[in-house]
From TrEMBL:
It is found in: Cytoplasm. Keywords: Cytoplasm, Ribonucleoprotein, Ribosomal protein. Residues 91-112 are annotated as: Disordered. InterPro entries: Plectin_eS10_N, Ribosomal_eS10, WH-like_DNA-bd_sf, WH_DNA-bd_sf. This is Ribosomal 40S subunit protein S10B. It comes from the Eukaryota. GO terms for cellular component: cytosolic small ribosomal subunit. It comes from Starmerella bacillaris. SUPFAM superfamilies: Winged helix' DNA-binding domain (SSF46785). GO terms for molecular function: RNA binding; structural constituent of ribosome. Its main location: cytoplasm. Residues 3-93 form the Plectin/eS10 N-terminal domain. Belongs to the eukaryotic ribosomal protein eS10 family. The keyword Cytoplasm applies.
Amino acid sequence: MLIPTDQRRKIHEYLFNEGVCVAKKDFECIHEDLQVKNLYVIKAMQSLNSKGFVKTQFVWQYYYYTLTDEGVEYLRDWLYLPSAVSPATHQQARPAAEGKTNKAVDAQAQLA
């Protein structure tokens, strides 16, 4: 399917930034997050899925797409991004600052 380049770029940027994408199985509505036709989102993801760049799960009339490691590399090349940039789902959580403590842990330590 022919998808306008600016809209395909918007879809790929969103997928790379988030690492996941959800699309309702409604070909006539507009995607809530992207403001692009939902048909374009589904077909772009279908293309990436056939190449092995995303994994697809379909549950209760919603498509759930998850970016694979090969997909990350492909989108980095397609979007001309440096290798230091990675999707939100591929980043590790930062450790908590040492000065801050959890009140629940402190309360349990006092009881012991």
